[in-house]
Design brief:
twelve-stranded antiparallel β-barrel; Porin; two-stranded antiparallel sheet; mainly beta; about 65% strand
Length: about 210
């Protein structure tokens, strides 16, 4: 018989002064993201929902399944998400498959991670997309972390771009954490979504 670990429920709720995904702004104002999850050992089932300000929809939601594991000092993660547009407008894509994979390793107070996210036909007017990202984080102390990310997005139906961000994350009591981060891209002349700005985020994970 297969020994299935007991389920471990969790939920993460984030409130950001402005929503971001793959280095681009998704909202003109605040964004709320909810991510309930049920884990069975390394395997998890989840769902996400968030508001977006877009000409093609009012938000995104969808189910996901994933895996988290460790081997030889490395941390591995993979997931598949079925993204659904909330109140889609026009004839653009209103659902999309998104595949994600990452590998990370810690060296004392330094944590590193490389990740790839691919969609054969993304939401809205975008078709095939590939987003690659590298992260370096440094633990100043047990509850405070400095981190920087740089990513590159190649896509059909939209401009390619390089994005980066850096900021400070502070762990707070009762499952809360706070993050202050600067986002920017190499294509800031293309409009508001690409321009640099400071974003504050409050997260609760239970």
């Amino acid at each position: 018989m297969i020994d299935i670990p007991p389920p471990e429920p969790a939920i993460e709720i984030s409130l950001a002064s402005r929503g971001y995904s793959k280095g681009l702004a998704q909202t003109e104002g605040a964004q709320v993201v909810a991510r309930p999850e049920l884990a069975f050992g390394p395997v998890w089932l989840g769902f996400y929902a968030k508001n977006v300000d877009s000409s093609t929809s009012e938000g995104e939601a969808g189910p996901a399944v994933g895996l988290r594991t460790s081997a030889a000092g490395f941390d591995f993660a993979a997931s598949a998400t079925w993204k659904l547009a909330i109140e889609p407008h026009g004839s653009t894509n209103d659902d999309a498959l998104e595949l994600f994979g990452s590998v990370g390793r810690r060296f004392g107070p330094v944590n590193t991670r490389l990740s790839l996210t691919w969609s054969p036909n993304d939401l809205g007017a975008t078709d095939e997309t590939l987003w690659g990202e590298a992260l370096v984080a440094y633990s100043l102390r047990r509850s405070t972390t400095l981190s920087a990310n740089i990513g590159r997005r190649e896509r059909d139906g939209g401009p390619d771009y390089t994005a980066f961000n850096f900021g400070l994350t502070q762990t707070l009591p009762r499952g809360f954490s706070a993050d202050v981060r600067w986002y920017d891209t190499d294509r800031s002349g293309r409009g508001d979504a690409f321009e640099g700005r400071l974003v504050a985020t409050l997260r609760l994970r239970l």
